[in-house]
Fold these 2 entries.
Entry 1:
Amino acid sequence: MLDLLQLLSWGESGWGDALLAGALVTILLALCCVPFGFPLGLLVALGSQSRRAAARLVATVFSTVFRGLPELLTLFLVYYGSQIAAERLMRHFGYEGGIVINAFAAGVIAFSLVLAAFSSEVWLSAFKAIPAGQAEAARALGLSRWTTLWRVTFPQLMRVALPGLSNNWLTLLKDTSLVSTISLADIMRQTSQAVTATREPILFYGAACVLYLILSAVSGLLFSRAEGFFSRPLQKA
Amino acid sequence: MDPVMSLLSSFLSPSLLESYGLRMLAGFWITVKLVSLSFILGWLLGWLLVLGRLSGHRLIRGLSRGYLYFFRGSPLLAQLFLLYYGMSAFRGFWQSVDLWWFFRDPWWCALLAFSLNTAAYQAEIFRGSLLALPEGQREACRALSLGPVQSFLRVILPQSMRIAIGPLGNEMILLVKASAIASLVTVYDVMGVTKLAYSRTFDFEIYLWAAALYLLIVEILRRTLRIMEGRLSRHLGR
Amino acid sequence: ETLRVGLEAAYPPFSAPSAKGGYVGFDIDIANALCKQMQVECEFIAQDWDGIIPALMARKFDAIISSMAVTKERAEQVDFTGHYYRTSMSVAVPRDADFKGLEAENFKGKVVGAQSSSTPGMYAEDVYGKAGAEVRLYPTADEAGSDLVSGRLDALVHDKYPLIEWMRKRSHDCCRLLGDLPGTMDDIAIAVRKGDDALRTRLNEAILAIRADGSYQRISQRYFGLDIY
Amino acid sequence: MNAPLQPRYLQHGLADAGPDAAPVVIDIQGLNKWYGDYHALRDIDLCVRQGDRIVLCGPSGSGKSSLIRCINRLEDAQHGRIDVLGVDIRGAASKTAPVLRDVGMVFQHFNLFPHLTVMDNCILAPMSVRGLRRPEAQERACHFLDKVGMRAHLHKYPAQLSGGQQQRVAIARALCMEPKIILFDEPTAALDPEMVKEVLDVMVRLADSGVTMLCVTHEMGFARQVAGRVLFLDEGCIVEDNDPVSFFTRPRSERAQAFLQQILA
Amino acid sequence: MNAPLQPRYLQHGLADAGPDAAPVVIDIQGLNKWYGDYHALRDIDLCVRQGDRIVLCGPSGSGKSSLIRCINRLEDAQHGRIDVLGVDIRGAASKTAPVLRDVGMVFQHFNLFPHLTVMDNCILAPMSVRGLRRPEAQERACHFLDKVGMRAHLHKYPAQLSGGQQQRVAIARALCMEPKIILFDEPTAALDPEMVKEVLDVMVRLADSGVTMLCVTHEMGFARQVAGRVLFLDEGCIVEDNDPVSFFTRPRSERAQAFLQQILA
Ligand SMILES: Nc1ncnc2c1ncn2[C@@H]1O[C@H](COP(=O)(O)OP(=O)(O)OP(=O)(O)O)[C@@H](O)[C@H]1O
Ligand SMILES: Nc1ncnc2c1ncn2[C@@H]1O[C@H](COP(=O)(O)OP(=O)(O)OP(=O)(O)O)[C@@H](O)[C@H]1O
Ligand SMILES: [Mg+2]
Ligand SMILES: [Mg+2]
């Protein structure tokens, strides 16, 4: 028992610091995707409701492709693809030698795209929940489309969308473990390293689970706060 | 068929198709089976969970919250791992209650883990769609004395499914992709087969094959869901 | 000058991460010896097995020293040096199982486990699978091992040395070695990018050099008590 | 019907009450309701007999909707006792459910089921609560839809109807359950005067068949013609409980006088 | 205001028209609207001058809401021309937006923004469309909320209001935009008679200040007192266009006669 705990401790013989470092990578990566992924998803949702056929097509293709492609492939495409492209380009200008695309940035780009594609469906379904009368009232008041979206639709949207978005977020948090394939040491990477080194799979996968659970407990708290904030006006009394 | 094949083989190597085509199909079938079964089981369990989560009973509410929290909060991979390898640690017990046949078989374990996992995600989707339902609908049900089952089946479900269907599509696609995780316990789906083939040939092309297959699945799903959504939105027909 | 070495670091006792950070194992020691011989710095970069060849090609590192067996398919993607050790495969079965021998027909209807994406995995599929065994492929041999212990598997095919190592460390009381599989001797070599002949030649010379000066034999003795070249 | 109620009824002291008066169907005592801090209903006492046609009126925000919603248990009152058909509806659901089945309601905002056609809106509850079979339920629905002039719109969805049409469907839906007590929350607000008259006829006929009605309305003409009794609410209190003739000619309370003055002016 | 309109106005031939009559603000010609197969509006011609107070009445489902929703471009008409303040509102959004900004509307179902307080509902549009600053907008909102008796409920959310209170907020919200034309869809349906009178006063004062009003209502008393002109719709046609006195005493069309008979009876 004691040596098991020792394995989780800090310092020379323990894996605690490695696991925490992995957790930091995971959470930073996921957090960095949020400011790109969710708004882009909203944009895609707006696009697929657009009156312009072109906008609808682009939105549909985006959502199908980035939901359909295995995340690993998206990641590879962004990471190796952009690297090979950059290298070709540089060689074209006569520069020989390696270019290294930052793995973290590649991860953020790839997962933002995936997050956007999945969240766009959630946004879209939330749009359906808003009665047509709201948009009509906004038009009758002469509100611009931007004001309508931002002041009328969005706050009502959030209440319905939040549970779905929290799904997206939690999925993202765990999908980021794929970055280990482009040599970023996230939670899962560190865990599997620890497992191979110590042959204590139950212990370390359990620890990883606990780390994820802590992350999702914190985010669950934030989400239910946000939900409370957006549904307060609709509560009776 | 022939011209299609020749077209395909002009940019995809036929040898690859020959040696792994059948296995890819078998993997595809595993994916379809795993996803559809676990999705349906998860759908049922998901509704139970969301009812529990909204119930007036504190204990039930707490339990379903805990369930949602655990299954959404931890990776499916870990859940499957714990279920599959964790259960085998209690082999003696399972044998004594005559359930070892279940936990011994990786397929059942995978199905169970996937159903439990997707139930949690689906429950949250359902909760969102219930939030979207105007309070007046529930009041009308009560005023008409519709029983809980009738209110649910005839009034609440059809309306909330309309809202839920998009995110449910997401969940289904995620399941399709997550089925790759089942190869962790030796249940090889499309992606599992792909990886296997890739690790033998190191031909990146096989991934493109898999990607095409995935895109196909997603596109079919998307279209089916659009049709269903259209049916559920008939009443809005202006 | 540094040599960037890619490795999987999930294949003890050949390569595994150490709690101190960094990696330990036979492959690492050999790599260090080679680097010393070549008078370069070794830099180890861990990489999932599935992505290890693409990563090499994308210049994440310059050589793979990760117990990679030479196969025809791999040779189409990368160039290999001469082997730095050779290994055959073995089969482990539960202690009380009654297997008559290693021949394929003995495995009909049995459940055989192996690591996926590995030569034992291919062997299990190609030989036992064709003979009517149910082949299950695991991400790593560890998981296959624990299923052998729990009774989900009837037999486990794996590379000989790791298998011995696993039985020694874990569960020697549960299982026994059925024997070496004939005709499965594999060359384990270093992979470099196609066309990177300069490096390949240097590595080849280095391998011969560490064999000549005896440092190879010392490492091999330390890990396995015999020379596995 | 219920012996101990007799004295309570007498104590209530309506002029025309006698020992053979109709049984009490709704009996409210000391009802108080708060929304948060806001005291919406104050010490409401009300006794309704079978076949009564009661009109609730009063200024906007006086608590009329709240009162009838409490009777239907759509709102929980914090204090007081509400007996409907002899059962305290603040009790366990298993006891109150059969009683509440006999209480119908027409909402101020209609609350039709948007995903069901007019016909399906009307047959859903009779089929699943009353156990009617489809043809019977449809027949009944046609009957009532006909009465409110909506027979021609059977297969439309609520979103395809005008405001008044929706309101009429809502009335028909409530009637299809053939409840013993029916609560109307401004059932004619969206109707044109012609239609008001038709609906009024339906309601008079209902009342004649022994159905008890509580109706919130702002149409004083309607009140004058249908009501057997008028309740005037203000700020959560019943300030006047009178027969319509006296209410409109010589209201007792000052508040009601002021209210009526505004209309008659 | 607009020279070519002059002849059209004369051809319309209202008795009191003269060369110095107020300018035309709404001009509808040959308007036809279908919902799927259903022909909801048939060949509507209508000319409204600045300051007119027009009441639209007619049986439920006759197309009143549809008509005023077309004027506001909430529904697209399939045929015909609708000029509002001199601009064809069936044109590009960039052209029609500034015009439609001057057209206010009060909905039959209120359509308040549920996530905003009463005050925020009222100041949102003035601030973001008219560019008012918060204190000005609030002052204006208080002014109108006061007029409809909702000053005390500033900080409540719509879900916490009674039906009539919601309706009054909806009226105040529309007024806060100080539109040149205002369309009411049954603005008093949920109001008690007292409140109706107050709202009516507000509307009369609005009209006096030159605002043009189109009001769908079922309250004939209201029509009698406020209207400058009464339009009677039936089955999608304007069957009568008259001044209120003649409309109520000697309606020209038979349909209107039948309609009025029902009420007066
Ligand atoms: N979306 C729709 N699809 C089909 N028919 C519709 C739709 N909207 C309205 N209608 C029909 O058009 C007709 C006119 O509707 P409208 O709402 O204009 O009536 P209204 O005069 O406002 O009636 P009310 O006084 O009851 O509100 C009605 O018969 C209605 O059934
Ligand atoms: N959920 C709530 N939270 C806070 N206050 C509420 C709530 N619901 C109603 N109220 C307040 O309670 C009072 C009574 O409301 P109620 O709906 O019963 O009025 P009403 O008599 O039906 O009015 P109306 O004729 O306008 O429909 C109102 O002043 C309203 O503001
Ligand atoms: Mg009310
Ligand atoms: Mg209308």
Entry 2:
Amino acid sequence: MLLDVKDLHVSYGAIRALRGISCQIREGEIVALIGANGAGKSTTLRTISGLIRPKSGEITYQGQSLIKMPPHQIVNLGISQVPEGRRVFTRMTVMENLEMGAYTRKDKAKVKEDIKKIFQRFPRLEERKNQLAGTLSGGEQQMLAMGRALMSKPKLLLLDEPSMGLAPMLVQEIFAIIKEINQAGTTILLVEQNAHMALSISNRAYVLETGEVVLSGDAQELANNPEVKKAYLGE
Amino acid sequence: MNMDSIFSMFLNDYYIQVLIMLGIYLIGALGLNLISGVTGQLSFGHAAFLSIGAYTSAILSLRLHLPFPMVLLAGGFMAALWGVLLGYPTLRLTGDYLGIATLGFGEIVRVVFLNLSITGGALGLSGIPRYTTLTLVIVLVVLTVWAMYRLENSRFGRALVAIREDEIAAEAMGVNITTSKITAFAIGTFLAGISGGLYAHLIQYLNPQDFGFQKSFDFLTFVVLGGLGSIPGVILGTTVLTLAPEFLRFVAEYRMMVYGALMVIMMIFRPRGLLGGVKLTRLLSRRKVQNTGTSAAGGAN
Amino acid sequence: MANNILELDSVTIRFGGLTAVDSVDMNIEEGSIRALIGPNGAGKSTIFNLVTCIYTPTSGEIRFMGQTINGLKPHIITKMGIARTFQNIRLFGEMTVLDNVKVGQHCRTRTGFLGAVLRGPRVKKEEAHITEAAMAALELMELSHKKDELAKNLPYGEQRRLEIARALATEPKLLLLDEPAAGMNPQEKQTLMKMIRKIQEMGLTIFLVEHDMKFVMSLSHRITVLDYGKKIAAGSPAEIQRDPAVIAAYLGKDVV
Amino acid sequence: MLTQQLLNGITLGATYALIALGYTMVYGIIQLINFAHGEIYMVGAFIGVLMVSVFHQGLLISLCAAMAFCMIMGVAIERVAYRPLRRSTRLAPLISAIGVSIFLQTLMTKIEGPQAVAFPHVINDSLYHMGAIEISKIQLIILVVSSLLMLGLHFIVKYVKIGKAMRAASEDYDTAALMGINVNRVISFTFAIGSALAAAGGVLVGMYFNSVAPLMGVLAGLKAFCAAVLGGIGSIPGAMLGGLFLGVAETLGVAGGFDLYKDAIAFTMLIVVLLFRPTGLLGRPIQRKV
Amino acid sequence: GGGGQKQNSADSNQAAGGGDTIKIGFLGAKTGEHAAFGVETLKGMKMAADDINKAGGVNGKKIEIVESDHGSKITEGTNVTQKLITRDKVVAIVGDPTTGITKAAAPIAQQNKVVLLSAGAVGTGVVEIGDYIFRDVLLDAVAAPAVTKYVNQKLGWKKVALITSMNNDYSVGLSKLFRKAVQENGMEIVAEQSIQDRDQNFSAQVTAIKDKNPDGIIFTGYYTEGGLFMKEARKQGMKAVMVGGDGLLSDVLMKMGGDAVEGSMVYCGFAADEARANEKTKKFIEAYKAGNNGTLPDMFSAQGYDAVMLLADAMKAAKSEDPQKFRVELAKTKDWQGVSGVITFQDNREPLKSPVYILTVKDGKFQVKDTVEVK
Ligand SMILES: Nc1ncnc2c1ncn2[C@@H]1O[C@H](COP(=O)(O)OP(=O)(O)OP(=O)(O)O)[C@@H](O)[C@H]1O
Ligand SMILES: Nc1ncnc2c1ncn2[C@@H]1O[C@H](COP(=O)(O)OP(=O)(O)OP(=O)(O)O)[C@@H](O)[C@H]1O
Ligand SMILES: [Mg+2]
Ligand SMILES: [Mg+2]
């Protein structure tokens, strides 16, 4: 078990966003988290990364508790996140943003190489590499956010709606990339509105509703589940 | 004035003095609240507008012996005029840069008053008649609160809040940012001018040193500590902070130390101000809000 | 043939060395739904910013109902009848949902400071009218039950709808929607589509940027495609879907 | 005479720049106008006096002691008065800062008395002549020390990783943390450096003008802050430029007969510069992208 | 306008007369800009009260000093004045040491018929506020012409530089007087420069006057700036010495100026010079030194002391603590020997203090250089 989330409760003031979520991620898996707006998907990811303190519950990563650990240490353990809404550093250039992604890494030469790889994946970013990230288009920012997270060479990558705002071709591209880095050894927890695509590349999935897990299991099975089809796949 | 004799039956002159001062500060603070709290334009130079109002009205009183209401209004309009003159070029500055420009303006006004002969320079202006009474101040405070309260729920008031929240979106909704901001500035500085005029005719002596940036910060503190944009908040903040130094007299020389520490502590425990987010309108129509505003988390269905 | 409500006449804008929009011509018919699609960074949002006068074009002319609007102030544009939503949501977070929409009525009403303070019968009537209009917009977007909540506390999808409601409250003739369906699940997208149709049926013209092809194809009457700031295609959804240039640049092979 | 005034102005400006750097760094990272910064400068000056007069130390040790003390103090102030307010409205820490500033002023008045204290002699008043210009040893020291400190700072921020971490943290704490940046540490570091520079400024100014007083931080702080804005707040070279600019302008203004309006000149210039360059001389223009 | 002059406080003052202590209020700053003056004034007042009480009090009652701090703020100054009068029911107020706050406080005292005796306000327009308002200071209007004449005739100064602190009402007023006196004595001001209180850097001003080669520098500001100014002057190689008012009179001048103020001259109505002092003054100096680690009193402490003594003597003469009565006696004060000099209140209640002491700094100490009689 790489990541084990047990009975997680999170509140924003009076709003109870998570009401006892449990989920497991095994090494090498792609796990999808789907659910309607406000179901608590982003909250789950933010809690794992240490940005939000849960009211109760336990998160263990490789047997080590993440509760109470500050976010930068969690990153050092190899957990990286592409946050919702891109959150690029708007006053830094594209290049600098990518370098920030590699903040914890010491291997400077390798970092340079990896930036090159990112540019190969997203040629658009290379064209814009000295532009301030704040003036990028929405989709370009999304690419940058993804590239930045990849720069940290995570063991576990948390993706919060990575396809949002991307052109159709790029959506395909993004999912291909997710599969590819997964095959290269990165475990992935994926939050997506595009449930169709998400389920198609995942091993397993959890369905969230108002802060609770209502369904879970094999991704393929869920994709064929009539309830899921109706509610999340729009069929 | 009959009301005043009634007041002095119940209150001694010291309390009356302190209450008048509180009222004067309230008017000024509500003015700043409109600028900084409601419209979100940082101003570090509020005291300068007080001083413009104070000097204008005092000079008119001393030289021309005009009736008090007239000089008060003149002080208010003079302050508003300068508010607009300063506002027009500087309001396109954003956030903190505007703050600095107003801070600079405040210091310039102070230095100018220090060097003009009509203001008595560093010697100050003395012998101003004492016209300010508790009754008058109470009436003006009530009027100001009333006006601000009505503004809160009006087309113009909403436009100001929209500017504070997101200028680009406000503009896209058809709000003319520049005129709205300037109008807010004019009204806020007008109130500062009135407040200054009352002050001049209470203290009976004016000195530019009394209107330095520290006084501007005092006003900002009233507003922020009370709760930016909240009328009850500003009233509470101003009251607490005006009375605190008086109540803290028993700690003698440690008074200002305690005052400073209290500012920090209050901010830490109430980061949005004592009554941050509390709106008078909402307070008054509380029941309605409670009925409808409950289901927050159950949004997904 | 109906009138063109919006006309772009070889509109160009450059940021430094970058030509974000490159001599684009476009005519939008009154009452239609027009989509603007293209790869990321093609210049779609920039066109919206040009039409709402947040940017001034480097060259070219933009006409709204036959009148040149280059270089006007955004608030004037709104008053003329163009409203928009933002790709990155820009709500007035600390205001209630209802107040957000009421701000939309700003350009259709008059009360200033003095009016607000004195609150005569005319002002009261106007305020009542504002509330009515705002509630109508909220109802259309199915948000009236949330009217007293702070905008920042709404879930993402509802925030998007609130943006549309707020834009509708300005009583526009032309409504620009920048990725209105982003971050919504398929079901919500369906609802949104119905809403947009309803709006169009009310007589508004809709100009739409969106990456969800299902959404675009089933909603729009005509589609314009942009790549690297240049118009590469225009036509009906069926035509666009078949256009090899569009497939190469944007759609990819197995979409839709 | 003009060159002499220029030199006086540059010396003054160098000290403004030292203080301005702290303002700019803190502003750059937490967008807080740290109004308590002037008081840190004041405390630094007093520590300098204490080291020299009570512990009989030389300039270098006194300077280092003051810098070390204020470093700790700056970090502590951030911990107590600003950190709890990090996620609240922008103005909350500002008020907290004013509170801290009032507190430190009165505390120091209580300890040292309200009067100015003379700065004991550590450096003789010898003059060096360079053509028509006279430069005193103290001026020389000020120029050298402040240049060294600023160069050091520039190096740290430009070439060491923490500089970039500061910029990232300044935009978005959460996302910076997601990059593995220890945001608290970066902010503490910023306060430490800024406060140390202010302390150095305090000691140097105390020595130069031979006096140290509990209220000395108010005006100096304000002017340094203006210098920071003038240069473009958040920009380190901007703070240096702004400081020098202000120092020279002020000195020349006084020499040119505008002494009555000295402070007004400084602020008028500030407003004029802001009108033409709304983000200061070296500030990056704000990009509007929707 | 005669409005607002309510007299409801008369009864409260009668009540004050009934207790077994006589309350005298201290109006001044213990914190903020002017704290130094306030603190010293208060020290003197307390010493006077002690001395009086040890000697049996006034009319069988003890003197009690009621203290309050206004933090050097005008607004709070008026609040404190009002509080002293209405809450503490003082019969007299000593203060404020500065002209500005005195001008704001005096109308309140006047309206409430409480005596206000400033032990430091030297600016114009103070006693004119009303017949309850007094001060026990050496007036610059008296001293400045006397001193100007002195430097001209005895020291042969012809060309002077005049330095004013522009944000200091005292300095601005004094400079006016000096400007007039210089003209009347046929001298010339060759350079005029302004500074500001709490400035530390005077290099520009010194550079500007240096070339004009004045015989002497008239400096009308306070001691901190005075010391620093001279320091800069010497640093830039100027030889001229400085003369100024009692605003320069403090040990701080030497602390700030060191050797640079050697030879500087200061006039005042009080000299803490034990060698020349009379018995009364000597006793005061000793007592002050004993209570303050050997530092010498400055004029504020001396004037504060005298203020309380003056009030006490007036009350004794009137056999009453009712301000309406003892202020009449106070106004009659003639050739009254205090620790800060001989005081006579003229018909307009302005004090005449004689002689004017001219002190000079020698070996880091103030020494009386000469005295000038004034009429
Ligand atoms: N900062 C916040 N303050 C208050 N409530 C919040 C905050 N962030 C989220 N919430 C609320 O918590 C609940 C869960 O939100 P969360 O963002 O985790 O949902 P989500 O599943 O990611 O939705 P979406 O698909 O819209 O991204 C929602 O009701 C939301 O309104
Ligand atoms: N202010 C600006 N300065 C520099 N470049 C800019 C600016 N605004 C936009 N750009 C660039 O112009 C191009 C077009 O941007 P625009 O936001 O219009 O794209 P878009 O078509 O909306 O893309 P998306 O679908 O990703 O939102 C992008 O490459 C962007 O980087
Ligand atoms: Mg989410
Ligand atoms: Mg876009």
